[in-house]
Amino acid sequence: MSTETAVRTEKPALLSARGLHVTFPGRRGAPPARAVDGVDLDIAPGEIVALVGESGCGKTTLARSLLGLVRPTSGTVSFDGKPLGYASGALKAYRKRAQLVLQDPSGSLNPRHTVYDAVAEGLRIHGVRAGTDEREAVAGALARAGLRPPKRFFLRYPHELSGGQRQRVVIAGALVLEPELIVADEPVASLDASVRGEILALLLRLRDELGLSALVVTHDLGLAWNIADRVAVMYLGRVVETGTVESVLTRPQHPYTQALLSVLPESGGAPVVLTGEPPDPSRIPSGCRFHARCQVLASGEAAAIAHRCRGESLPILSGGPEQAVACHWATREGAAP
Fold first, then answer.
1. CA 117 to CA 320: how far, in whole Å?
2. Cα separation of 295 and 327, whole Å?
3. 3-state SS class at 74
4. What is the pLDDT of residues 11-69, one digit of tens each?
5. Is residue 61, in this structure, part of any structural domain at all?
6. Can you tell me the distance from the alpha carbon of 284 to that of 94, in angstroms, rounded to the nearest whole number?
7. Residue 122 falls within a domain, yes or no?
8. Per DSSP, which regions of 56-108 are E strands?
9. Which domain holds residue 318?
10. CA distances (Å), origin 130, targets 83, 122, 127, 201, 295
């Protein structure tokens, strides 16, 4: 971990979740679905955290609950040391400071609105700050998002832009309110490979120039390696491994993290093929929630502690910067550090 990252992660958390649960009612008498089933997570000022996991693991629901878009069933979310309020006025004030950037820029932009109107929308909802000219604010946001000269884009419509330009407009729409935190849900998944690097470089530049914090939701560990200071790996509603990007991606301890990393071209080993699908969140298994698909348990290597894997629950991991793993095999006596 770099000195810069070490300093960044030692600051008090800007965003903090403690014991977060989000449960949805089951359909037709089925048990409730535990989409987020106990999560602690901190994001420090100026820190980029990647939330990684398969589709359906709960990462988008967690991200939305951190923004106040989904109210937790239990647990707390705090921003800048204060608990998040769910009254309309409190949420409106919070959303000036924490903005969402969605995966599909085409779906995020109204095809009937010009670029200018798309970026100015947030200012109009929240009210232009005293002494701020709307036109100057929109131009500044577009320029920071890499659309220069910005006035050339004012009267364009989304269909007249490339995919990368549309994503920059979405980012500009978030930046125009001068937020302290951006939550980016799969921000480059719909873009061509040639454009993805540009958008990731933009997010890093915004962090360095503006001090922005970011939570980047992704299924791609390669993306996490290129952009994140810290990684939280999520499985079936809970974070199962967390730490600095260097520690988690070069020395993964959880078998699930190891399986996700094994499919990257640079891993150099044989891909780990997990059996079956992630369990239904309304029927989370006892013990380690990964045990039914665990390649270490299936191979017989963990036979001595199989009873613990199948029957003994694991604690919620700390939300801070320390490396931690929720795995009986990784934390057994004599396990490699």
1. 39
2. 13
3. strand
4. 789 999 999 999 999 888 889 999 999 999 999 999 999 999 999 999 999 999 999 99
5. no
6. 33
7. no
8. 74-79, 82-83, 98-101
9. 251-325
10. 27, 15, 9, 32, 59
* CA gap 130, 307 in Å, rounded: 63
Q: Which residues contact 140 (CB under 8 A, 6 or more apart)?
A: 150, 176
- The band of 132, judged by pLDDT with boundaries at 50, 70 and 90, is low
Whole-angstrom CA distances from 69 to 6, 27, 79, 88 are 31, 22, 14, 11
Q: Nearest-CA neighbor of 121 among 170, 65, 80? A: 170
Determine the distance from the C-alpha atom of residue 177 to the mean position of all C-alpha atoms in its chain, rounded to a whole number. 20
- The pLDDT tens digits for 258-316 are 999 998 887 777 899 888 888 999 999 999 999 999 999 999 999 999 999 999 999 99
Cα–Cα distance measured from residue 334 to residue 2, given in angstroms and rounded to the nearest whole number = 29
Predicted pLDDT of residue 29: 80
**Which conformational region is residue 80 in: left (phi greater than 0), alpha (psi within -120 to 50 degrees), or beta?**
left
Calpha distance 27→171 (Å, rounded): 36
Examine residue 185 and state whether it is found in any structural domain, yes or no. no
> Which residue's entry shows tokens 């040639």?
194
**For residue 67, how many other CB atoms are within 10 A of its CB?**
20
Look at the chain and report how many structural domains it folds into: 1
Local confidence band at 326 (pLDDT 50, 70, 90 cut-offs)? very high
φ/ψ (deg, to 5) at 314: -110, 150
The answer to whether residues 240 and 259 touch, using CB atoms and an 8 Å cutoff, is no
Residue in 230, 250, 256, 233 with CA at minimum distance from that of residue 320: 230
**Do the domain assignments include residue 100?**
no
Hey, which residues does 216 pair with through a beta bridge?
A: 50, 184
